[in-house]
Specification:
Length: 444
């Protein structure tokens, strides 16, 4: 088991490095070609920022797949399954459409059609849902048409959920990275815990997706130097959906011994049975909720579901008084709580302490939502470990310097011989800009 872990770690590091190193040149390229849209009413940034960050993320995806294909254990994923090639084909198509949209602003229906075509390309190459576990019924085998339609629907919904949540610096990349990390833990456990090789592609997709997001985040954190654009948000949404399709529709729950003699023998066994169906939804729970609320809100107002507005969850956090960075961290918190909480409960469903921990963390999250003006103070011993804006001592010193400079009077200017002021009068100080009228009259 140690060897596959090292190979996954190597794939992750290569993906991170390639994405990170490509983002700088991509930023210069985006500026050169003019992929810097004007500030819109719904935007929260104040300066035009280049897009096309998805180019670097696609480079990281290709590098990760290339490295994994040449590793001893991960090479079997490419030999026994066509799913990596299906993912690369669909990702290349959706990425190309995203690049064109970042530059030329394509119509929403054109992008929707491209998303459906990308999902169809993956279905044609075998990356599709074959069966689904249905509560109180069991594993339901789908017909090819049913599987393809469900696959296309899941891909389109996931892509748009990630695209909708991409409204703050570092938000979409961070939330998808958290979801991919939780998904990796679950898929890795199925592969090596139950010995099911059908979970290997989903595990690889999750590792590469983490690398794509981690490599891009340093350039995208507030204040962002580059945006991923639709070329990036649609790309990572498709990769996330591909992993969910692979683990949900191609790994038989019966093979994991989750069905106890074909029936439920205890109430606490219900959730582990349905985890393959539930987990792909929980990892995108926050983006999915934002997507559903946006569609309902816009339809209720008589607008198009694709019409942009400032009613997303991250916009509401800003309206409550949270700062940009804190709004992003709150969204990270809830995404991680839902995703990792579901994975933890799938491992130890009979443990009450997991439920208690999740409940306590949920109460903490609600408390953070109600305290938008609260400013945490970093301990003095930990100030070197946090960004400068969280260092209380440095902020206090800067404030003291600013106060002192504001109170200190302006020093008198020295008298310069032969230097005349206005109308030939000699400057003698800060208030002697004009000649003394009495001295002028006596000189006459």
């Amino acid at each position: 088991m140690g060897q596959p872990v090292r190979e996954y770690l190597l794939t992750l590091c290569v993906t991170v490095a390639v994405t990170y190193l490509l983002t700088g040149p991509v930023r210069k390229f985006a500026i050169a070609v003019g992929a810097m849209p004007e500030i819109r009413a719904r935007d929260v940034h104040r300066e035009p920022t280049p897009r096309l960050g998805g180019i670097a993320m696609f480079g990281g995806l290709c590098a990760g797949l290339l490295v994994a294909d040449h590793l001893q254990n991960l090479n079997g994923v490419f030999a026994l399954s066509n799913e990596p090639r299906a993912l690369l084909s669909g990702a290349a198509l959706i990425w190309l459409v995203g690049v064109l949209d970042d530059k030329f602003e394509l119509d929403a229906l054109v992008k929707l059609g491209a998303q459906m075509i990308s999902a169809g390309v993956m279905c044609m190459q075998g990356l599709t849902i074959l069966w689904i576990p249905v509560p109180w019924i069991g594993t339901v085998i789908l017909t090819p048409w049913q599987g393809n339609l469900l696959t296309v629907a899941l891909v389109v919904v996931t892509i748009n959920a990630v695209n909708f949540v991409d409204g703050l610096d570092g938000l979409a990349a961070g939330m998808v990275c958290i979801a991919a990390c939780a998904f990796f833990l679950y898929a890795y456990r199925i592969w090596f815990g139950y010995g099911i090789e059908a979970a290997a592609p989903a595990t690889l997709f999750a590792a590469i997706l983490m690398g794509m997001c981690l490599g891009f985040l340093p350039h995208n954190m507030h204040p962002a130097r580059i945006f991923m654009g639709d070329s990036g948000s649609m790309l990572i949404g498709l990769v996330l959906a591909a992993g969910a399709i692979s683990i949900t529709g191609q790994v038989d729950p019966d093979a994991m011994a989750l069905w106890l003699d074909g029936e439920r023998n205890a109430t606490h066994a219900m959730l582990p049975v349905f985890i393959p169906l539930i987990l792909p939804l929980t990892i995108i729970a926050i983006p999915m909720a934002d997507l559903i609320l946006a569609i309902v809100r816009r339809t209720w107002k008589g607008q198009s579901p694709f019409a942009a507005d400032r009613g997303h969850l991250h916009h509401r956090l800003l309206e409550l008084g949270h700062s940009h960075s804190r709004a992003v961290l709150i969204m990270y918190f809830w995404s991680g709580l839902i995703a990792f909480g579901t994975v933890a409960y799938s491992v130890h469903s009979a443990s009450m302490w997991i439920v208690l921990v999740i409940s306590a963390l949920s109460a903490l999250g609600l408390l953070l939502l109600l305290l938008p003006r609260f400013t945490p103070r970093t301990p003095q011993w930990a100030e070197r470990l946090v960004p400068p804006r969280y260092r209380h001592a440095e902020r206090a010193a800067e404030a003291a310097v600013q106060d002192a400079s504001a109170v200190e009077p302006e020093p008198a200017r020295p008298i310069a011989a032969g230097v005349s002021g206005v109308n030939g009068a000699t400057a003698v100080g800060p208030r002697s800009r004009f000649p003394d009228r009495r001295k002028a009259e006596s000189s006459r």
